[in-house]
């Protein structure tokens, strides 16, 4: 973190983040409606505890200001892509089959590298749900989150925020695709195969009569609001603007406002567009950003004491924390630690050249883990919660926080990640 002083923190200050995480996971299981009414109190209240600690006890208000600016950047990007993509209506005639679903998810994985995981998720989730409406289940949403909202965006700095931070630190734009494509292709292929087997089994159980009853026989395949692609391009260009402060965010917000007021009401109605999903993401991640600061600061100060030395260890360390902390600062912290391990400085371009020539395996491990493990939980990456919220509005019963992890992440993602570790990072 540039121009920000990191001060040792009391380890007890990690508990507000842990408590918020447990609240998100447990309370909806006990009383979902109560949680929907009161989650802002938990998010803002626990976030306020961390803010007070940094301002009045550590006398390090600059650290929280820096985090506040990061949050503004995060929610502006997420929100602007949400609004603009909500102005594009994609109608696909007919019903989706397992083969068609695999094709849609594959396209989504590729699009994630151009529009980012957020842009691709918001643009494609509604048509994906629509063509599967006669047999929607939770696994449809979960695999969309796995592939489109996370792992798909691992090939370019545009695809996922951690990789963009690496680009800003001096990692060449095409370095990622050159070093990550094989792990990306393996993970995407395995997930698509597993999805197809599950989807096909479920598909043949759906009665043919039911499929005929719900068959869509109306409008042909078409796209409405296509001019909003121009606003998407403007937002993506703005991503590369660093100075002056908040110019990037102002351009993104301006694009979103123009898109919203120029989009016909009919398109928003077809998309069932409203601000509930982005509101939930904004409120929960406000608390997450604030409460995770002590966790990240402790990690940065103590990274050298954790005994993490090999690329494989960096893979698992970066990955596990990326699943519960914001994966962008986690990426930076572990990247900084890997530089320090070799007596190099992250912000020194000469050292970056040396690192990429001699120690690139560490960056490969950190890059893959930061992006891939964002799919482990709902809070691992910004689009995850948004996709969940949009899907629930469409009537899909999405798994709970723990249900997502126990039913899908542990039995599906973890073995795939272990296989990737075995092939790419087990050998020093």
UniProtKB/TrEMBL annotation:
InterPro entries xrefs: CitMHS_2
Keywords recorded for this protein, A-Z: Membrane, Transmembrane, Transmembrane helix
Segments crossing the lipid bilayer: 12-31, 37-57, 69-90, 102-125, 137-158, 181-202, 223-241, 281-299, 362-381, 401-425
UniProt-recorded name of the protein: Sodium:proton antiporter
Originating species: Candidatus Schekmanbacteria bacterium RIFCSPLOWO2_12_FULL_38_15
């Amino acid at each position: 973190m540039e121009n920000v002083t990191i001060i040792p923190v009391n380890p007890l200050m990690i508990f507000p983040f842990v408590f918020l995480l447990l609240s998100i996971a447990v309370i909806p299981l006990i009383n979902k409606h109560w949680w929907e009414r009161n989650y802002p109190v938990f998010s803002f209240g626990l976030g306020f505890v961390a803010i007070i600690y940094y301002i009045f006890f550590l006398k390090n208000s600059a650290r929280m200001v820096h985090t506040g600016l990061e949050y503004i950047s995060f929610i502006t990007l997420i929100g602007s892509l949400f609004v603009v993509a909500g102005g594009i209506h994609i109608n696909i005639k007919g019903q989706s089959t397992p083969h068609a679903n695999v094709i849609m998810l594959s396209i989504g994985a590729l699009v994630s590298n151009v529009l980012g995981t957020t842009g691709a998720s918001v643009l494609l989730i509604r048509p994906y749900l629509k063509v599967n409406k006669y047999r929607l289940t939770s696994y449809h949403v979960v695999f969309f989150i796995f592939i489109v909202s996370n792992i798909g965006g691992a090939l370019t700095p545009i695809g996922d925020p951690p990789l963009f931070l690496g680009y800003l630190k001096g990692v060449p734009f095409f370095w990622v695709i050159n070093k990550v494509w094989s792990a990306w292709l393996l993970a995407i292929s395995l997930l698509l195969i597993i999805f197809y087997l599950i989807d096909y089994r479920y598909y043949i159980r759906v009665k043919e009569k039911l499929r005929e009853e719900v068959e869509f026989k109306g409008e042909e395949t078409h796209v409405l609001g296509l001019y909003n692609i121009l606003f998407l391009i403007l937002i993506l260009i703005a991503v590369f603007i660093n100075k002056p402060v908040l110019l990037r965010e102002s351009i993104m917000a301006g694009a979103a406002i123009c898109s919203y007021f120029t989009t016909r009401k009919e398109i928003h109605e077809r998309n069932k567009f409203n601000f509930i999903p982005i509101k939930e993401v904004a409120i929960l991640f406000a608390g997450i950003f604030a409460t995770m600061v002590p966790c990240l600061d402790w990690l940065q100060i103590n990274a050298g004491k954790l005994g993490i030395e090999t690329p494989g260890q960096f893979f698992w360390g970066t990955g596990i924390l990326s699943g519960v902390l914001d994966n962008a600062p986690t990426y930076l912290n572990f990247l900084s630690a890997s530089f320090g391990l070799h007596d190099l400085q992250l912000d020194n371009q000469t050292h970056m050249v040396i690192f990429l020539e001699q120690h690139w395996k560490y960056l490969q491990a950190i890059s893959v883990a930061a992006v891939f493990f964002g799919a482990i939980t709902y809070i691992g990456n910004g689009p995850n919660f948004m996709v969940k919220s949009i899907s629930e509005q469409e009537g899909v019963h999405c798994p709970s926080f723990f249900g997502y992890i126990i039913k899908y992440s542990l039995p599906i993602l973890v073995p795939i990640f272990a296989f990737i570790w075995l092939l790419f990072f087990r050998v020093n």
